[in-house]
Amino acid sequence: MVGLGLTACDSFLDVNDDPNNPVSTTPNYLLPSIIGNGLQVQLLTELRVGQITQNIAGRTANITTDQYYFTPSNSTSTFNNTYYLVGSNIGPMIAAAEAEGSPYYVGAGKTMRAIIMAHLTDMLGDVPYTEAWQGYTNIAPKYDPQEEIYNTIFKLLEEAEAEFSKPATANKRPFYSANPVSGDILYQGDVSKWIKLINSIRARQLNHLTKKATYSADAVLAAIDKGIKNNADDATLGYRQPTSVESSTTSIWGPTRGNMASYTFGRMFVNYLNGTTLLGDATAADDPRFAIISPTLSNGAIPGAGQPSAPTVTDFYGGWYSTDNSPFPLVTNAEMRFIEAEAAFRKSDKSRAFTAYKAGITAHMTKLGVAAAAQATYLGSAAVAQSEGTLTLKNIMEQKYIAMFLNPESWSDLRRFDFDPAIYPDYAVPAGVNPNLGGKMVRRLPPAQTETQYNPAEVARMGWGTPDYVTLPVWWDKQ
Question: InterPro entries recorded for this chain (predicted)?
Answer without folding.
Answer: SusD-like_2 (IPR041662), TPR-like_helical_dom_sf (IPR011990)
